[in-house]
Amino acid sequence: MTKGDKMKPIMQLHATARALRLVLVLLAIGAGTNAMAQKTATKPAAGQSEPRITLAVNEGGAANADFLEILERYEGFAQLVGKTLKVQVAIVNVRNRDRLQENLKKQAYELLLARPNDVPAQAVRDFGYQPVATAKDYYRTLFIVPKGSTLQTIADVRGKTIVTPDAYSNMWRAANAMLRDSKIDMSKENVRSMRDQAAIAWSLENGFFDVGVVNSASAAGRTWEKNGGRIIARSRDQINMPFIASPAVSDAQVVKLRAAVLALDATESGRAILKKINLANGFKETPREEFVAFLKWLGEEVKPLKSPSAQADILGSL
Questions:
Q1: Torsion from C-alpha of 192, 217, 234, 291, nearest 10 degrees
Q2: Which tens digits make up the pLDDT trace of 173-186?
Q3: What class is the 17-138+239-286 domain?
Q4: At the topology level of CATH, where does 141-238+306-316 sit?
Protein backbone atom coordinates (compact mmCIF):
# COMPACT_ATOMS: atom_id res chain seq x y z
CA MET A 1 0.00 0.00 0.00
CA THR A 2 1.39 3.41 -0.97
CA LYS A 3 1.38 6.53 1.19
CA GLY A 4 -1.31 7.90 -1.10
CA ASP A 5 -3.49 4.82 -0.52
CA LYS A 6 -3.05 5.20 3.24
CA MET A 7 -4.01 8.87 3.09
CA LYS A 8 -7.23 8.50 1.05
CA PRO A 9 -9.49 7.21 3.89
CA ILE A 10 -8.21 9.99 6.17
CA MET A 11 -8.84 12.71 3.58
CA GLN A 12 -12.29 11.28 2.77
CA LEU A 13 -13.15 11.31 6.47
CA HIS A 14 -11.97 14.91 6.78
CA ALA A 15 -14.03 15.91 3.73
CA THR A 16 -17.14 14.29 5.23
CA ALA A 17 -16.51 16.03 8.55
CA ARG A 18 -16.07 19.38 6.81
CA ALA A 19 -19.34 18.91 4.93
CA LEU A 20 -21.17 18.00 8.13
CA ARG A 21 -19.74 21.03 9.93
CA LEU A 22 -20.91 23.24 7.06
CA VAL A 23 -24.45 21.92 7.36
CA LEU A 24 -24.40 22.50 11.11
CA VAL A 25 -23.11 26.04 10.68
CA LEU A 26 -25.85 26.82 8.15
CA LEU A 27 -28.44 25.47 10.56
CA ALA A 28 -26.90 27.51 13.36
CA ILE A 29 -26.94 30.80 11.50
CA GLY A 30 -30.54 31.53 12.38
CA ALA A 31 -29.88 30.90 16.08
CA GLY A 32 -26.47 32.51 16.16
CA THR A 33 -26.76 35.60 14.01
CA ASN A 34 -28.45 37.77 16.60
CA ALA A 35 -25.88 37.00 19.28
CA MET A 36 -22.93 37.39 16.92
CA ALA A 37 -24.24 40.64 15.49
CA GLN A 38 -24.95 42.31 18.82
CA LYS A 39 -23.25 45.67 18.99
CA THR A 40 -21.13 46.02 22.09
CA ALA A 41 -22.87 48.18 24.68
CA THR A 42 -21.80 49.09 28.17
CA LYS A 43 -25.07 50.90 28.93
CA PRO A 44 -28.53 49.30 28.97
CA ALA A 45 -30.47 49.57 25.73
CA ALA A 46 -34.03 50.89 25.79
CA GLY A 47 -36.18 48.53 27.82
CA GLN A 48 -33.14 46.55 28.95
CA SER A 49 -32.52 46.34 32.70
CA GLU A 50 -28.85 45.32 32.52
CA PRO A 51 -25.95 46.39 30.30
CA ARG A 52 -24.74 43.90 27.71
CA ILE A 53 -21.15 42.87 27.12
CA THR A 54 -19.50 40.57 24.61
CA LEU A 55 -17.48 37.51 25.57
CA ALA A 56 -15.44 36.46 22.54
CA VAL A 57 -14.20 32.87 22.47
CA ASN A 58 -11.36 31.67 20.25
CA GLU A 59 -10.39 28.00 20.37
CA GLY A 60 -7.69 28.27 17.71
CA GLY A 61 -7.35 27.57 14.02
CA ALA A 62 -7.72 23.80 14.38
CA ALA A 63 -10.92 23.99 16.42
CA ASN A 64 -13.89 22.37 14.70
CA ALA A 65 -16.64 23.59 17.02
CA ASP A 66 -19.45 25.58 15.41
CA PHE A 67 -21.38 28.39 17.08
CA LEU A 68 -23.96 26.14 18.75
CA GLU A 69 -21.24 23.94 20.25
CA ILE A 70 -19.35 26.99 21.54
CA LEU A 71 -22.56 28.43 22.98
CA GLU A 72 -23.35 25.19 24.79
CA ARG A 73 -19.76 24.73 26.01
CA TYR A 74 -19.27 28.25 27.39
CA GLU A 75 -22.82 29.03 28.53
CA GLY A 76 -22.06 28.23 32.17
CA PHE A 77 -18.91 30.35 32.12
CA ALA A 78 -20.83 33.25 30.55
CA GLN A 79 -23.52 32.95 33.22
CA LEU A 80 -20.84 33.23 35.90
CA VAL A 81 -19.51 36.40 34.22
CA GLY A 82 -23.00 37.86 33.97
CA LYS A 83 -23.83 37.12 37.59
CA THR A 84 -20.52 38.55 38.82
CA LEU A 85 -20.70 41.78 36.83
CA LYS A 86 -24.51 42.08 36.79
CA VAL A 87 -24.60 42.22 33.01
CA GLN A 88 -26.03 40.27 30.11
CA VAL A 89 -23.34 38.38 28.21
CA ALA A 90 -23.37 37.70 24.47
CA ILE A 91 -21.01 34.90 23.41
CA VAL A 92 -19.21 35.37 20.10
CA ASN A 93 -17.31 32.52 18.44
CA VAL A 94 -14.29 34.09 16.70
CA ARG A 95 -12.40 31.58 14.55
CA ASN A 96 -10.47 33.84 12.20
CA ARG A 97 -7.15 34.99 13.63
CA ASP A 98 -6.88 38.16 11.52
CA ARG A 99 -10.43 39.23 12.39
CA LEU A 100 -9.78 38.59 16.06
CA GLN A 101 -6.61 40.69 15.95
CA GLU A 102 -8.34 43.56 14.17
CA ASN A 103 -11.33 43.57 16.54
CA LEU A 104 -9.07 43.51 19.59
CA LYS A 105 -7.22 46.49 18.17
CA LYS A 106 -10.59 48.28 18.00
CA GLN A 107 -11.44 47.03 21.51
CA ALA A 108 -14.59 45.51 20.03
CA TYR A 109 -14.85 42.78 22.70
CA GLU A 110 -15.11 43.54 26.40
CA LEU A 111 -13.86 40.04 27.25
CA LEU A 112 -11.85 37.40 25.43
CA LEU A 113 -11.14 33.79 26.40
CA ALA A 114 -8.72 32.21 23.93
CA ARG A 115 -6.60 29.08 23.56
CA PRO A 116 -4.02 30.67 21.23
CA ASN A 117 -1.89 32.83 23.51
CA ASP A 118 -0.05 35.28 21.28
CA VAL A 119 -2.96 37.40 20.03
CA PRO A 120 -4.37 37.95 23.55
CA ALA A 121 -0.84 38.75 24.76
CA GLN A 122 -0.55 41.36 22.03
CA ALA A 123 -3.89 42.84 23.11
CA VAL A 124 -2.54 43.14 26.66
CA ARG A 125 0.72 44.73 25.52
CA ASP A 126 -0.56 46.97 22.73
CA PHE A 127 -4.33 47.45 22.80
CA GLY A 128 -5.13 48.36 26.40
CA TYR A 129 -6.50 45.00 27.57
CA GLN A 130 -5.60 43.65 30.99
CA PRO A 131 -5.27 40.06 32.19
CA VAL A 132 -8.07 38.61 34.25
CA ALA A 133 -6.61 35.12 34.60
CA THR A 134 -4.97 32.24 32.74
CA ALA A 135 -5.20 28.47 33.07
CA LYS A 136 -3.20 27.03 35.96
CA ASP A 137 -1.69 24.47 33.63
CA TYR A 138 0.99 25.83 31.34
CA TYR A 139 1.60 24.17 28.02
CA ARG A 140 4.68 23.65 25.90
CA THR A 141 5.48 23.42 22.22
CA LEU A 142 6.99 20.03 21.39
CA PHE A 143 9.25 18.86 18.58
CA ILE A 144 8.38 15.21 18.01
CA VAL A 145 9.88 12.40 15.91
CA PRO A 146 8.83 8.81 15.16
CA LYS A 147 10.13 5.94 17.27
CA GLY A 148 12.77 4.88 14.74
CA SER A 149 14.16 8.35 14.09
CA THR A 150 17.87 8.96 14.59
CA LEU A 151 17.29 12.61 15.57
CA GLN A 152 18.10 13.29 19.21
CA THR A 153 17.90 17.06 19.80
CA ILE A 154 16.48 20.16 18.15
CA ALA A 155 19.93 20.85 16.70
CA ASP A 156 19.50 17.73 14.55
CA VAL A 157 16.47 19.07 12.65
CA ARG A 158 18.58 21.28 10.40
CA GLY A 159 18.06 20.14 6.82
CA LYS A 160 15.17 17.82 7.73
CA THR A 161 11.52 18.04 6.69
CA ILE A 162 9.42 19.74 9.38
CA VAL A 163 5.63 19.97 9.68
CA THR A 164 4.06 22.58 11.98
CA PRO A 165 0.57 23.86 12.76
CA ASP A 166 -0.71 26.77 10.62
CA ALA A 167 1.98 29.15 9.43
CA TYR A 168 2.36 32.22 11.65
CA SER A 169 0.01 30.78 14.29
CA ASN A 170 1.13 30.90 17.92
CA MET A 171 2.49 27.35 17.64
CA TRP A 172 4.40 28.19 14.47
CA ARG A 173 5.86 31.27 16.17
CA ALA A 174 6.92 29.23 19.20
CA ALA A 175 8.61 26.66 16.95
CA ASN A 176 10.37 29.51 15.16
CA ALA A 177 11.58 30.92 18.51
CA MET A 178 12.87 27.51 19.62
CA LEU A 179 14.80 27.06 16.38
CA ARG A 180 16.12 30.62 16.63
CA ASP A 181 17.40 29.90 20.14
CA SER A 182 19.21 26.89 18.67
CA LYS A 183 20.80 29.04 15.94
CA ILE A 184 18.57 27.60 13.20
CA ASP A 185 16.81 29.95 10.77
CA MET A 186 13.35 28.49 10.23
CA SER A 187 12.88 30.45 6.99
CA LYS A 188 15.74 28.47 5.46
CA GLU A 189 14.41 25.07 6.48
CA ASN A 190 12.01 22.75 4.64
CA VAL A 191 8.86 23.56 6.64
CA ARG A 192 5.25 22.75 5.77
CA SER A 193 2.09 23.51 7.70
CA MET A 194 -0.89 21.37 8.63
CA ARG A 195 -3.82 22.64 10.67
CA ASP A 196 -4.78 19.48 12.53
CA GLN A 197 -2.28 18.20 15.09
CA ALA A 198 -3.65 14.65 14.92
CA ALA A 199 -2.86 14.78 11.22
CA ILE A 200 0.66 15.99 12.01
CA ALA A 201 1.18 12.93 14.22
CA TRP A 202 -0.28 10.63 11.56
CA SER A 203 1.94 12.11 8.83
CA LEU A 204 5.04 11.47 10.97
CA GLU A 205 4.04 7.91 11.73
CA ASN A 206 3.59 7.28 8.01
CA GLY A 207 6.89 8.80 6.92
CA PHE A 208 5.75 11.98 5.22
CA PHE A 209 7.99 14.19 7.41
CA ASP A 210 11.01 13.85 9.68
CA VAL A 211 9.92 16.18 12.50
CA GLY A 212 6.59 17.49 13.75
CA VAL A 213 5.52 20.32 16.05
CA VAL A 214 2.55 19.89 18.39
CA ASN A 215 1.10 21.35 21.57
CA SER A 216 1.71 19.42 24.79
CA ALA A 217 -1.97 19.90 25.69
CA SER A 218 -3.23 18.36 22.44
CA ALA A 219 -4.20 14.71 22.17
CA ALA A 220 -1.19 14.16 19.91
CA GLY A 221 1.15 15.79 22.40
CA ARG A 222 -0.25 13.94 25.41
CA THR A 223 -0.06 10.49 23.84
CA TRP A 224 2.99 10.69 21.56
CA GLU A 225 5.49 9.11 23.95
CA LYS A 226 2.91 6.62 25.24
CA ASN A 227 2.45 5.42 21.67
CA GLY A 228 6.18 4.90 21.17
CA GLY A 229 7.22 8.23 19.64
CA ARG A 230 9.90 10.53 21.04
CA ILE A 231 10.05 14.20 22.03
CA ILE A 232 13.37 15.80 21.14
CA ALA A 233 12.65 19.34 22.37
CA ARG A 234 10.26 21.11 24.72
CA SER A 235 9.68 24.86 24.81
CA ARG A 236 9.58 27.02 27.90
CA ASP A 237 6.29 27.06 29.81
CA GLN A 238 3.74 29.16 27.94
CA ILE A 239 0.65 31.09 29.00
CA ASN A 240 -2.43 28.91 28.53
CA MET A 241 -6.04 30.01 27.86
CA PRO A 242 -5.71 33.76 28.57
CA PHE A 243 -8.84 35.49 29.84
CA ILE A 244 -8.52 39.23 29.24
CA ALA A 245 -10.66 42.37 29.62
CA SER A 246 -10.85 45.56 27.57
CA PRO A 247 -10.67 49.09 29.05
CA ALA A 248 -14.49 49.10 28.98
CA VAL A 249 -14.33 46.78 31.99
CA SER A 250 -13.34 48.79 35.05
CA ASP A 251 -10.49 47.83 37.38
CA ALA A 252 -13.04 47.07 40.10
CA GLN A 253 -14.95 44.77 37.75
CA VAL A 254 -11.73 42.98 36.76
CA VAL A 255 -10.95 42.35 40.42
CA LYS A 256 -14.44 40.90 40.99
CA LEU A 257 -14.25 38.78 37.85
CA ARG A 258 -10.79 37.48 38.69
CA ALA A 259 -11.93 36.45 42.17
CA ALA A 260 -14.92 34.63 40.69
CA VAL A 261 -12.98 32.61 38.09
CA LEU A 262 -10.12 31.81 40.48
CA ALA A 263 -12.70 30.35 42.89
CA LEU A 264 -14.30 28.06 40.34
CA ASP A 265 -12.27 25.02 41.36
CA ALA A 266 -13.43 25.37 44.98
CA THR A 267 -17.04 24.31 44.36
CA GLU A 268 -18.76 21.42 42.63
CA SER A 269 -20.72 23.72 40.33
CA GLY A 270 -17.56 25.65 39.48
CA ARG A 271 -15.65 22.48 38.69
CA ALA A 272 -18.48 21.47 36.34
CA ILE A 273 -18.01 24.76 34.45
CA LEU A 274 -14.26 24.17 34.25
CA LYS A 275 -14.72 20.61 33.01
CA LYS A 276 -17.04 21.85 30.30
CA ILE A 277 -14.38 24.21 28.90
CA ASN A 278 -11.58 21.63 29.35
CA LEU A 279 -9.78 23.48 32.16
CA ALA A 280 -10.23 20.98 34.98
CA ASN A 281 -7.48 22.49 37.14
CA GLY A 282 -8.88 26.00 36.98
CA PHE A 283 -7.45 29.49 36.63
CA LYS A 284 -4.66 31.50 38.23
CA GLU A 285 -3.67 35.14 38.24
CA THR A 286 -0.98 36.07 35.71
CA PRO A 287 0.60 39.55 35.68
CA ARG A 288 0.86 41.73 32.60
CA GLU A 289 4.65 41.43 32.71
CA GLU A 290 4.42 37.71 31.95
CA PHE A 291 2.43 38.41 28.78
CA VAL A 292 4.98 41.00 27.66
CA ALA A 293 7.93 38.68 28.37
CA PHE A 294 6.24 35.89 26.44
CA LEU A 295 5.83 38.10 23.36
CA LYS A 296 9.46 39.19 23.61
CA TRP A 297 10.53 35.54 23.50
CA LEU A 298 8.25 34.78 20.55
CA GLY A 299 9.69 37.66 18.56
CA GLU A 300 7.80 40.14 16.42
CA GLU A 301 5.02 38.67 14.33
CA VAL A 302 5.83 38.46 10.63
CA LYS A 303 3.31 36.87 8.30
CA PRO A 304 5.16 34.69 5.78
CA LEU A 305 5.07 35.73 2.12
CA LYS A 306 3.98 32.19 1.35
CA SER A 307 2.67 29.39 3.55
CA PRO A 308 3.50 25.96 2.09
CA SER A 309 0.70 23.54 2.87
CA ALA A 310 1.46 19.99 3.92
CA GLN A 311 -2.07 18.95 2.97
CA ALA A 312 -1.54 20.26 -0.56
CA ASP A 313 1.74 18.36 -0.82
CA ILE A 314 0.15 15.09 0.28
CA LEU A 315 -2.95 15.52 -1.88
CA GLY A 316 -0.69 16.21 -4.84
CA SER A 317 0.93 12.82 -4.36
CA LEU A 318 -2.37 10.90 -4.50
A1: 90
A2: 999 999 999 999 99
A3: alpha beta
A4: D-Maltodextrin-Binding Protein; domain 2 (3.40.190)
